[in-house]
């Protein structure tokens, strides 16, 4: 059975900020579009077997079922709601950033 994949407003804003940074600061809009397309494809792929990626190591996120999926230089954090067959993407974080701080910032 397939899952419905949804994004929180927080994760959407993170993606938009990254696209804007790549386009306007790094001045490579083509790369921003390619990155966004690739990220979308990977996130949509969570509709099948979303539990294939590991739970985060730290508490309380581990107990809350937060998983981490690496996507190039980013980590996509999400949880699976089995009752409703939904996958919720909660954050998209640059992998070189302090991940513990990023998790703490996640609503």
* Gyration radius, in Å: 14 Å
How many structural domains in the coordinates? 1
CATH architecture: 2-Layer Sandwich
Give the overall silhouette.
globular
Instruction: Output the strand order for the largest sheet.
Output: 1-4-3-2
Lay out the secondary structure.
Elements: E1 4-7, H1 9-25, H2 29-44, E2 67-71, E3 74-81, E4 86-94, H3 99-105
Parallel strand pairs: 1-4
Antiparallel strand pairs: 2-3, 3-4
Helix pairs in contact: 1-2
Give a short overview:
By secondary structure, the protein is α+β, with helices and mostly antiparallel strands.
Describe the structure in your own words.
The chain is α+β, with helices and mostly antiparallel strands. The protein has one domain (4-105): RelE-like (YaeB-like fold, 2-Layer Sandwich), CATH 3.30.2310. The chain has 3 helices and 4 strands, in the order E-H-H-E-E-E-H. The termini are far apart. The model has no long low-confidence stretch (mean pLDDT 96).
Which structural traits does this protein have?
single chain, 107 residues, alpha+beta, YaeB-like fold, four-stranded mixed beta sheet, 3 helices, 24% strand
